[in-house]
Amino acid sequence: MADNQLSQPAVNSSSTTTTSIDPYELLYIVYNSDDDSLTRLVSVPSTPSTDDPNCKDIPLNIQHKTSIRLFRPTQQSSLNDHFSVTKKLPLIIYFHGGGFILCSAASSYEHDFCKYMATQLPCLVVSVDYRLAPENRLPAAYDDGMDAVNWVRNQALDAINGEKWLRDYADFSKCFIMGCSSGANIAYHAGVRALELNLEPELKISGLILNQPFIGGSERTGSEIRLINDPVLPLAMTDMKWELALPRGANRDHMYCNPMVDDVTRGGNKVGLMRMRCLVVGCDGDPLIDRQVEFVKRLEGKGVKVETWMEEGGSHGMFFFDPKKAEILFGKLKEFISIQ
Question: Which ranges carry the Alpha/beta hydrolase fold-3 domain (predicted)?
């Protein structure tokens, strides 16, 4: 293996916290310093869209090689495209997790999550296959998020030639932006950026759904220290992901990482203009829970109408591994999106 592949960026840890965990070994990745890229030694299992008549892949930005995976509810009568609805369905623009550096819309656990969500709510899901870091550091994923928002708006504008599933089944007045973990971070920034767009009346963003948002900061929190060696998201892994995702030279108090930063010149005050509802989901078994609670307080302080569901126990990413908790989550989402 070349020497440049072994030169991992230093993980910026606090002097008050120590751990022997090597996050690169844990995730089976190697950093290539010569071109700021990762060698991903293990492929995340994926599911082709051709395996399911109720999803399809659609190019988003050819230059950036991004796409969306569109899901509709699974019905017994939906084979051979004999799909019907009695009323138009809510639309969720969804961003997958993976710490900005792993996974895709085709990753099997993300595919299954979106498929189940589309059926249980029911709704249409536009799952965005955005660019990953460090090959494409932030704000690349945010830019891809806005491409997706604009793509949905363009479908709403084109009642004749727009994407058939959206044209036939989508209620464009009930669009939500959602993400899990790092995807929730992207969803938040996409929601803030969407405030600058003239989307209505063709497309109305009715709310944000932030499931265990991946956020950070330089100052350690109590939950990060308490769960420093968490088996799902140890502190060293969190630091490493931010080192790879943030713009070169930025620290964890950059606005992309730390939403507590309130700098008007960097868009902090735009949050106060947010009139859409926001649902924040978390659990006290997640090392990020203290940050998520403070994040909720900040949103409320800005006048944002926030609903929360904070579960006891659990872990980061628990809804992908516990079907019972996923079922409860989808029940909460169904209630949230049904409010007019």
Answer: 92-319
